[in-house]
Amino acid sequence: MAKDEKGRAKAEQAKGKVKKVVGGAVGNESLKAEGKIEESKGDLRAAKEKAKDAIKPK
Questions:
Q1: pLDDT at 1
Q2: Is the CB of residue 18 less than 8 Å from the CB of residue 28?
Q3: The pLDDT of residue 21
Q4: Number of neighbouring beta carbons within 10 Å of residue 42
Q5: Which of 3, 29, 36, 57 counts the most CB atoms within 10 A of its CB?
Q6: Ordered per-residue pLDDT tens for the chain, 58 residues
Q7: How many angstroms separate the CA atoms of 21 and 38, rounded?
Q8: Which 3-state string (H, E, C) describes the chain?
Q9: Which pTM value belongs to this model?
Q10: Cα(56)–Cα(5) distance, rounded to whole angstroms?
């Protein structure tokens, strides 16, 4: 499950980054904002997974 969530986080980050760059390149502010939001969601998901890994018993 954790690997799936980590993969999803990376995918969200990448997809958001692409939307942000494309939105900025074509001057579409709503696409750029949507990309920032999606990238942030990916960042939060990745941070959650890192926190879960840090508290896992070894």
A1: 54
A2: no
A3: 97
A4: 20
A5: 36
A6: 578 888 999 999 999 999 999 999 999 999 999 999 999 999 999 999 999 989 988 7
A7: 12
A8: CHHHHHHHHHHHHHHHHHHHHHHHHHCCHHHHHHHHHHHHHHHHHHHHHHHHHHHCCC
A9: 0.82
A10: 16
